[in-house]
Amino acid sequence: MAVSVWSLGNPELGGWGLWLSPRRQPLFAWHGPTQRLRALVSLAGVALLMALWLLWLLQSSPGGAPMPQPTLTILIWHWPFTYPPPELPSNTCTSYGVARCHLSTNRSLLATADAVVFHHRELRDGWIRLPLAERPRGQPWVWASMESPSNSHGVSDFRGIFNWVLSYRRDSDIFVPYGRLEPREGPAPPLPPKDRVAAWVVSNFRERQRRVQLYRQLAPHLQVDVFGRANRRPLCASCLLPTVSRYRFYLSFENSQHRDYITEKLWRNALAAGAVPVVLGPPRATYEAFVPPDAFVHVDDFGSARELAAFLTGMNESSYRRYFAWRDRLRVRLVEDWRERFCAICARYPHLPRSQVYQDLQGWFQS
Ligand SMILES: *[C@@H]1O[C@H](CO)[C@@H](O)[C@H](O)[C@H]1NC(C)=O
Ligand SMILES: *[C@@H]1O[C@H](CO)[C@@H](O)[C@H](O)[C@H]1NC(C)=O
Question: Which of 56, 94, 118, 257 has the most neighbouring CB atoms within 10 Å?
Answer without folding.
Answer: 118
